[in-house]
Please model this.
Amino acid sequence: MDLLQLRYFQAVARREHLSQAAAELHVAQPSLSRAIARLEADLGVPLFDRAGRGLRLNRFGAGFLRRVDRVLRELDDARQELADAAGLDHGSVAVAAETLLTLTGMLTEFRAEHPGVAIRLYQSSAEAMAEQLRTGEIDLCFASQPLAGSELHTREVLREEVLLGVPPGHRLDGRDRAGMAELAGEPFVTTRPGYWPRALADRLFAEAGVDPLYTCESDEPGATGELISSGLGIGLVPGMSRRVATHMPGSFLRLDVPDCHRVLTVAWRGDTYSSAAAQRLTEFAVGYFHRVFTA
Model:
């Protein structure tokens, strides 16, 4: 058993698909298959149940994966600690967010101050971000809703009001406020479940006893303003969009509901090593959002 076999096993176990894991690892599928077979022979038990070309992690494999994740994470942490000793000129950090548009301004300034830090970005739902943190695929995530995981630490970076955006010429265009009852039957632009605008919309409609008419559901929260301005419906838009978006709704209204806010937090695992780059990016983000959006 060697380190390469363990990394191969980890990739196959996460994907439960040989060809996808081979593509991720940039190795030939037959070589990957032989490596997994040798590992199983060394361990004396099968790690996967096989049905035709399919693979499914069995109870032996699931238990082994937990140990492998821990071992490889320790090795990666050790490597990162050595890199940190050399300074931020050689650092790296992997980051996820529900929409990367939230981070563009902050990351532009961070990279200007720390050009040696390599940044890898992912756009993910809340559930996916929690899993990415658990597996060590990312170091930090910026989330606008609570994430599952008792080991996660969070820090608030932005609290802002969420407004109702309406397209030009809409019957609510020009109004200052609106009640949820007035939104009954209105085509509503939102995201798929798993992203904060949908979670907030679901809650507000449920509390008001109004059935929503979701007619446009996207995987990009940052596109909501443009979709509204195109006349596809009305929708929830964070206050910061008025400063950073290029396509805006016809007007913004306040909703007559309590707690119509978005709270953006940065989250990380508290039970693993946090690199110098990740710590610096966290502090930088807190300062940036306070300076730009709350000053």
The chain has three domains: 3-79, 87-154+267-293, 158-262. The chain is about 40% helix and 25% strand.
